[in-house]
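Bench log. Compound arrived from synthesis this morning; before running ITC I wanted a structural hypothesis for how FE2/S2 (inorganic) cluster sits in the protein. Inputs:
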Amino acid sequence: MMADTEAGATVIDDTQAPAKTPTVEITFVTNQGKTVRAPHNSNLLRVSLREQGGIPFKCGGGICGTCKCRIEQGLENTDDVKPKERKHLNDDDLRAGYRMACQTFIKGDVAVSWEPRTTPR
Ligand code: FES
């Protein structure tokens, strides 16, 4: 026989609840405005790689500077600028919305552009 269990106060702990992951919309302006959805707090370069967004890159680790891009819309939806980014971006760049895609996490909708890579001579 099952004993009655005194559970005490009913505490609903919903901090662990598997809430639906919110998603964000990322528009790759330089790639004909291709728009994709990604989980909240996604790394911008990773999304670009996964979805063939087209942001140029080499190291993926904040060193080479190749992934410099400009957040055309939604700069407020990006996370804090990392010290590694400051090696490639000055204050004017940052004010203008430039970020290093491999170091940037997206918390809301953004539109991103970049300098298309020139073909090596
Ligand atoms: S890919 Fe090298 S700094 Fe981002």
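What the model suggests: Residues 23-113 form a domain with the Ubiquitin-like (UB roll) fold (CATH 3.10.20.30). Residues 57-60, 62-67, 100, 102 surround FE2/S2 (inorganic) cluster (CB under 6 Å).
ITC booked for Thursday regardless.
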